Amino acid sequence: MVTIEHRNAKVKLAEQVYEPAEDSYLLADTALDLVKDCMSILEIGTGTGFVSAVLKANRNISLIATEISPIAAKCAKSNGIDVIRTDMFAGLIEKKQFDVVLFNPPYLPTSEDEKVPGWLNYAFDGGVDGRKDVEPFMQQVSNYLKPHGFILMLISSLTGIDEVIEKMRKYSFNAQVIASEKCSFEKLVIIMASATNNE
Amino acid sequence: MKKDLMDILACPICKGDLVLNIEKEDANEVISGTLYCSVCNEYYPIEEGIPNMLPPDLRE
Question: What is the pLDDT of residue B37?
Fold first, then answer.
Protein backbone atom coordinates (compact mmCIF):
# COMPACT_ATOMS: atom_id res chain seq x y z
CA MET A 1 0.00 0.00 0.00
CA VAL A 2 1.35 3.42 -0.94
CA THR A 3 1.69 5.94 1.86
CA ILE A 4 2.62 9.59 1.49
CA GLU A 5 3.92 11.91 4.18
CA HIS A 6 3.41 15.62 4.49
CA ARG A 7 3.87 17.88 7.50
CA ASN A 8 3.62 15.15 10.15
CA ALA A 9 0.71 13.39 8.47
CA LYS A 10 0.95 9.90 7.00
CA VAL A 11 -1.75 9.20 4.44
CA LYS A 12 -2.53 5.88 2.80
CA LEU A 13 -3.67 5.96 -0.81
CA ALA A 14 -6.11 3.60 -2.51
CA GLU A 15 -7.08 2.54 -6.03
CA GLN A 16 -9.94 4.55 -7.52
CA VAL A 17 -9.37 7.39 -5.03
CA TYR A 18 -7.95 10.74 -6.15
CA GLU A 19 -4.26 10.80 -5.33
CA PRO A 20 -3.27 14.02 -3.53
CA ALA A 21 -1.66 16.38 -6.02
CA GLU A 22 -0.66 20.07 -6.21
CA ASP A 23 -4.23 21.14 -5.44
CA SER A 24 -4.41 19.03 -2.28
CA TYR A 25 -1.04 20.29 -1.04
CA LEU A 26 -1.97 23.93 -1.67
CA LEU A 27 -5.24 23.55 0.24
CA ALA A 28 -3.59 21.67 3.11
CA ASP A 29 -0.75 24.20 3.50
CA THR A 30 -3.04 27.23 3.22
CA ALA A 31 -5.54 25.76 5.68
CA LEU A 32 -2.77 24.96 8.14
CA ASP A 33 -1.79 28.65 8.19
CA LEU A 34 -5.33 29.68 9.12
CA VAL A 35 -6.70 26.87 11.27
CA LYS A 36 -6.06 27.34 15.00
CA ASP A 37 -6.37 24.95 17.93
CA CYS A 38 -9.90 24.36 19.25
CA MET A 39 -11.58 25.16 15.93
CA SER A 40 -14.35 23.00 14.55
CA ILE A 41 -13.66 21.99 10.95
CA LEU A 42 -15.72 20.37 8.21
CA GLU A 43 -14.21 19.10 4.97
CA ILE A 44 -16.55 18.33 2.09
CA GLY A 45 -15.37 15.61 -0.31
CA THR A 46 -12.27 14.56 1.58
CA GLY A 47 -11.04 11.83 -0.81
CA THR A 48 -8.10 10.05 0.84
CA GLY A 49 -8.54 12.42 3.81
CA PHE A 50 -5.20 14.07 3.01
CA VAL A 51 -6.09 17.70 3.82
CA SER A 52 -7.96 16.72 6.98
CA ALA A 53 -5.11 14.45 8.08
CA VAL A 54 -2.55 17.25 7.70
CA LEU A 55 -4.71 19.54 9.86
CA LYS A 56 -5.31 16.88 12.50
CA ALA A 57 -1.61 16.01 12.67
CA ASN A 58 -0.69 19.61 13.47
CA ARG A 59 -3.63 21.16 15.31
CA ASN A 60 -5.81 20.24 18.24
CA ILE A 61 -9.14 20.53 16.43
CA SER A 62 -12.40 18.70 16.03
CA LEU A 63 -12.82 17.69 12.44
CA ILE A 64 -15.31 15.71 10.45
CA ALA A 65 -15.43 15.08 6.72
CA THR A 66 -17.94 13.94 4.15
CA GLU A 67 -17.34 11.84 1.08
CA ILE A 68 -19.72 10.31 -1.47
CA SER A 69 -17.46 7.54 -2.81
CA PRO A 70 -17.51 4.36 -0.71
CA ILE A 71 -13.90 3.59 -1.63
CA ALA A 72 -12.66 7.06 -0.73
CA ALA A 73 -14.71 7.08 2.49
CA LYS A 74 -13.05 3.84 3.54
CA CYS A 75 -9.63 5.23 2.64
CA ALA A 76 -10.21 8.42 4.66
CA LYS A 77 -11.41 6.35 7.60
CA SER A 78 -8.21 4.27 7.44
CA ASN A 79 -6.32 7.56 7.67
CA GLY A 80 -7.99 8.39 10.97
CA ILE A 81 -10.63 10.77 9.65
CA ASP A 82 -14.16 10.77 11.10
CA VAL A 83 -15.90 10.45 7.78
CA ILE A 84 -19.58 10.39 6.87
CA ARG A 85 -20.64 8.94 3.55
CA THR A 86 -23.01 11.51 2.15
CA ASP A 87 -23.57 13.89 -0.74
CA MET A 88 -21.98 17.18 0.33
CA PHE A 89 -23.94 18.36 3.42
CA ALA A 90 -26.93 16.00 3.09
CA GLY A 91 -26.46 13.84 6.21
CA LEU A 92 -25.51 16.73 8.49
CA ILE A 93 -27.78 18.52 10.93
CA GLU A 94 -28.52 22.13 9.92
CA LYS A 95 -26.65 23.92 12.66
CA LYS A 96 -24.18 26.77 12.28
CA GLN A 97 -21.41 24.98 14.13
CA PHE A 98 -18.24 24.97 12.00
CA ASP A 99 -15.51 27.61 12.14
CA VAL A 100 -14.10 26.53 8.80
CA VAL A 101 -15.53 24.59 5.86
CA LEU A 102 -12.96 23.25 3.41
CA PHE A 103 -13.83 22.22 -0.12
CA ASN A 104 -11.66 21.00 -2.98
CA PRO A 105 -14.46 20.41 -5.48
CA PRO A 106 -14.23 18.54 -8.73
CA TYR A 107 -13.30 21.62 -10.73
CA LEU A 108 -12.37 20.49 -14.22
CA PRO A 109 -14.73 21.40 -17.04
CA THR A 110 -15.84 17.96 -18.22
CA SER A 111 -17.92 16.92 -21.20
CA GLU A 112 -19.82 13.63 -21.46
CA ASP A 113 -17.00 11.85 -23.33
CA GLU A 114 -14.34 13.09 -20.90
CA LYS A 115 -15.89 11.39 -17.88
CA VAL A 116 -13.84 8.66 -16.25
CA PRO A 117 -15.48 5.39 -15.21
CA GLY A 118 -16.47 4.58 -11.65
CA TRP A 119 -16.35 6.58 -8.45
CA LEU A 120 -13.19 8.43 -9.47
CA ASN A 121 -15.30 10.61 -11.76
CA TYR A 122 -16.67 12.36 -8.67
CA ALA A 123 -13.16 13.65 -7.99
CA PHE A 124 -12.78 15.35 -11.36
CA ASP A 125 -16.07 16.06 -13.05
CA GLY A 126 -17.03 19.70 -12.54
CA GLY A 127 -19.67 19.60 -15.25
CA VAL A 128 -19.36 21.45 -18.55
CA ASP A 129 -18.24 24.72 -16.92
CA GLY A 130 -16.26 23.18 -14.03
CA ARG A 131 -18.55 24.85 -11.49
CA LYS A 132 -21.30 22.23 -11.16
CA ASP A 133 -20.74 21.69 -7.42
CA VAL A 134 -19.94 25.30 -6.50
CA GLU A 135 -23.56 26.44 -6.75
CA PRO A 136 -25.12 23.78 -4.45
CA PHE A 137 -22.20 24.20 -2.02
CA MET A 138 -22.74 27.96 -1.75
CA GLN A 139 -26.50 27.49 -1.49
CA GLN A 140 -26.11 25.30 1.60
CA VAL A 141 -22.89 26.26 3.37
CA SER A 142 -24.42 29.11 5.44
CA ASN A 143 -26.60 26.58 7.26
CA TYR A 144 -23.47 24.93 8.70
CA LEU A 145 -20.93 27.71 9.05
CA LYS A 146 -20.70 29.83 12.19
CA PRO A 147 -21.56 33.50 11.52
CA HIS A 148 -17.88 34.46 11.81
CA GLY A 149 -16.59 31.33 10.16
CA PHE A 150 -15.00 31.09 6.75
CA ILE A 151 -14.76 28.90 3.68
CA LEU A 152 -11.56 27.79 1.98
CA MET A 153 -12.19 26.55 -1.54
CA LEU A 154 -9.65 25.40 -4.07
CA ILE A 155 -10.36 25.98 -7.74
CA SER A 156 -8.38 26.36 -10.94
CA SER A 157 -8.13 29.05 -13.59
CA LEU A 158 -9.95 26.48 -15.75
CA THR A 159 -12.92 26.69 -13.39
CA GLY A 160 -13.26 30.45 -13.85
CA ILE A 161 -11.99 32.29 -10.79
CA ASP A 162 -13.99 35.50 -11.35
CA GLU A 163 -17.15 33.50 -11.97
CA VAL A 164 -16.76 31.58 -8.71
CA ILE A 165 -16.09 34.78 -6.72
CA GLU A 166 -19.14 36.35 -8.35
CA LYS A 167 -21.24 33.37 -7.32
CA MET A 168 -20.01 33.67 -3.74
CA ARG A 169 -20.95 37.36 -3.68
CA LYS A 170 -24.42 36.42 -4.89
CA TYR A 171 -24.76 34.41 -1.69
CA SER A 172 -23.56 37.39 0.41
CA PHE A 173 -20.01 36.20 0.95
CA ASN A 174 -16.88 38.35 0.83
CA ALA A 175 -14.49 36.36 -1.30
CA GLN A 176 -10.87 36.80 -2.26
CA VAL A 177 -7.95 34.79 -3.57
CA ILE A 178 -5.48 34.25 -0.73
CA ALA A 179 -3.04 31.77 -2.29
CA SER A 180 -2.14 30.59 -5.76
CA GLU A 181 0.22 28.32 -7.59
CA LYS A 182 0.99 27.89 -11.27
CA CYS A 183 0.89 24.34 -12.53
CA SER A 184 1.54 23.06 -16.01
CA PHE A 185 -1.70 24.01 -17.74
CA GLU A 186 -3.57 25.88 -15.04
CA LYS A 187 -3.30 28.21 -12.08
CA LEU A 188 -4.61 26.84 -8.80
CA VAL A 189 -6.07 29.28 -6.29
CA ILE A 190 -7.50 29.19 -2.80
CA ILE A 191 -10.51 31.41 -2.29
CA MET A 192 -11.32 32.48 1.24
CA ALA A 193 -14.91 33.57 1.78
CA SER A 194 -16.79 34.82 4.81
CA ALA A 195 -20.35 36.02 5.27
CA THR A 196 -20.84 39.76 4.79
CA ASN A 197 -23.71 40.07 7.26
CA ASN A 198 -22.47 38.39 10.41
CA GLU A 199 -25.67 38.24 12.42
CA MET B 1 -18.14 6.19 14.03
CA LYS B 2 -17.76 7.88 17.37
CA LYS B 3 -21.00 8.19 19.30
CA ASP B 4 -20.70 11.97 19.57
CA LEU B 5 -21.17 12.10 15.79
CA MET B 6 -24.88 11.74 16.64
CA ASP B 7 -24.85 15.48 17.45
CA ILE B 8 -23.92 16.20 13.85
CA LEU B 9 -25.83 13.61 11.83
CA ALA B 10 -29.32 14.16 10.42
CA CYS B 11 -31.64 12.33 8.06
CA PRO B 12 -30.55 13.37 4.55
CA ILE B 13 -34.17 13.50 3.41
CA CYS B 14 -36.03 15.40 6.18
CA LYS B 15 -33.00 16.69 8.16
CA GLY B 16 -34.59 15.32 11.33
CA ASP B 17 -33.01 13.49 14.25
CA LEU B 18 -31.91 9.87 14.05
CA VAL B 19 -31.98 6.97 16.48
CA LEU B 20 -28.77 4.97 16.84
CA ASN B 21 -28.96 1.17 17.00
CA ILE B 22 -25.62 -0.48 17.73
CA GLU B 23 -24.84 -3.95 16.41
CA LYS B 24 -21.12 -3.96 17.07
CA GLU B 25 -18.83 -1.53 18.87
CA ASP B 26 -15.39 -1.33 20.42
CA ALA B 27 -13.99 0.98 23.10
CA ASN B 28 -13.81 3.93 20.71
CA GLU B 29 -16.64 3.72 18.27
CA VAL B 30 -19.64 2.08 16.68
CA ILE B 31 -18.48 -0.37 14.04
CA SER B 32 -21.80 -1.48 12.67
CA GLY B 33 -25.44 -0.69 13.26
CA THR B 34 -28.15 1.55 11.90
CA LEU B 35 -29.42 5.09 12.13
CA TYR B 36 -33.20 5.29 12.00
CA CYS B 37 -35.38 8.22 10.97
CA SER B 38 -38.89 7.73 12.37
CA VAL B 39 -40.36 10.50 10.21
CA CYS B 40 -39.20 8.95 6.93
CA ASN B 41 -39.28 5.40 8.32
CA GLU B 42 -35.83 4.90 6.84
CA TYR B 43 -32.72 3.11 8.09
CA TYR B 44 -29.19 4.26 7.28
CA PRO B 45 -26.50 1.61 7.76
CA ILE B 46 -23.24 2.02 9.67
CA GLU B 47 -20.63 -0.26 8.11
CA GLU B 48 -16.97 -0.56 9.05
CA GLY B 49 -17.40 2.48 11.26
CA ILE B 50 -18.75 4.69 8.47
CA PRO B 51 -22.34 5.96 8.54
CA ASN B 52 -23.85 5.73 5.07
CA MET B 53 -26.20 8.68 4.79
CA LEU B 54 -27.01 8.31 1.11
CA PRO B 55 -30.71 8.02 0.32
CA PRO B 56 -31.67 4.36 -0.31
CA ASP B 57 -31.88 4.75 -4.09
CA LEU B 58 -28.28 6.00 -4.27
CA ARG B 59 -26.83 3.51 -1.83
CA GLU B 60 -24.73 0.58 -2.89
Answer: 97
For residue A85, the chain B residue with the least C-alpha distance is: B52
Structure confidence by residue, pLDDT tens digits, A37-55: 999 999 999 999 999 999 9
Q: Which residues of A touch B49 (CB under 8 A)?
A: 77
The arithmetic mean of pLDDT across residues A80-96, rounded, is: 97
Where are the domains positioned within chain A? 3-198
- Tell me how many residue pairs between chain A and chain B have CB atoms under 8 A apart: 59
Q: Where are the domains of chain B?
A: 3-53
User: By the CB < 8 Å criterion, does B10 face chain A?
Assistant: yes
CA distance A28 to B31: 29
Is CATH 1.10.530.10 the classification given to domain A3-198?
no
Q: By the 8 A CB rule, do A64 and A82 touch?
A: yes
- Give the pLDDT of residue A124: 86
* ipTM for this model: 0.95
For residue B52, give the 3-state DSSP assignment. strand
